[in-house]
Amino acid sequence: MTETVIKTDKLTKRFGDFIATNGITFEVHKGEIFGFLGANGAGKTTAMRMLCGLSKPSSGSAQVAGFDVYKQTEQIKRNIGYMSQKFSLYEDLTVVENIRFFGGIYGLSNADIKTKSESLLAQLGMESEAKKLVGSLPLGWKQKLSFSVAVLHRPKIVFLDEPTGGVDPVTRRQFWNLIYAAAQDGITIFVTTHYMDEAEYCNRISIMVDGKIEALDTPRALKQRYNTTTMDDVFYQLARGAKRSE
After folding, report:
1. What is the total count of domains within the chain?
2. Which of 4, 78, 116, 125 is 20 to 30 Å apart from 148, CA to CA?
3. Name one GO molecular function term (predicted).
4. How far apart, in whole angstroms, are the C-alpha atoms of residue 135 and residue 230?
5. d(Cα 220, Cα 199) in Å, to the nearest integer?
6. Quick one: pLDDT at residue 38?
7. Average pLDDT, integer, range 179-208
8. CATH code for the domain of 233
9. CA–CA separation, 46 vs 12, rounded Å?
């Protein structure tokens, strides 16, 4: 994991007098599962929107897949996948119609879409659901399908914004198995979550508190540094320390 696919330097986003993302600096490497952790309102989604080319930074710099977030947003969008906390497929289309639709948006040929559709359905065990409306599926199936469609075109990076919100623990584990498989295939995973236990699944994590990155390292190194066995306690100590310094 030596190739840098995301690089930021003092990246900042202001909304009037409010600083949502405050001078964040970090790098993410190819094939890495990078956890972007923090409580709700810490600035995670704001940072992700800037990296996806959906929101212009107020200051600082960033490159995603080799492209500048100020000047090359369309190139960024062509080289990434994205899945939001809110389910992002069309519920009034069938499973296979969604796959074909997004495959077309991603510029895949009809032959590739057919092959990838069959492979995806087999991988998820959803062959019998292919012609069912997505809106009729259980939430866990929807989330796994949404992730699989987000990486259908083999993007360099896939951004996942709170992808496991509202799903049961078993489905969360199955979802992370899909993430591991994508990372092993060379896709970089950038995932935001407020579930501290999910940090254990990442190669490295950053922890945001009030718009700032307060820590960045492997889960093991962070637990050693803060003399604890859980990421929940690491986060608690960081949040408490930030509040004391205000």
Report:
1. 1
2. 4
3. ATP binding
4. 37
5. 10
6. 85
7. 91
8. 3.40.50.300
9. 10
Burial class (CB in 10 A: 0-12, 13-18, 19+), 132: middle
The pLDDT value given to residue 202: 95
The answer to the question of residue 52 being in a domain is: yes
Q: Give domain status of residue 9, yes or no.
A: yes
pTM (2 d.p.)? 0.90
Inside any domain, residue 230: yes
3-state secondary structure of 182: helix
Q: Which two tokens stand for residue 113?
A: 């879409």
Residue 63 falls inside a structural domain:
yes
Q: Which two tokens stand for residue 88?
A: 């992002």
Helix (H) or strand (E) holding 21: strand 18-29
**29 token code pair:** 């490497």
The distance of Cα 22 from the centroid of its chain, to the nearest Å, equals: 20
Q: For residue 152, what are the CA distances in angstroms to 64, 119, 145? A: 19, 10, 10
Question: Cα separation of 196 and 130, whole Å?
Answer: 34
Q: What CA–CA distances, in Å, run from 169 to 23, 75, 123, 164, 218?
A: 34, 36, 20, 9, 23
Indicate the SS3 state at residue 233: helix
For position 239, what pLDDT does the model report?
Answer: 81
What's the pLDDT tens digit per position in 149-163?
999 999 999 999 888
83 SS3 class: strand
What confidence category does residue 87 fall into, taking pLDDT thresholds of 50, 70 and 90? Answer: low
Range of the domain at 233: 4-23+31-88+156-244
The 10s digit of each residue's pLDDT in 100-142 is 999 998 889 999 999 999 999 998 999 999 999 999 998 888 8
Which residues 6+ apart lie within 8 Å of 217 measured at CB? 204, 205, 225
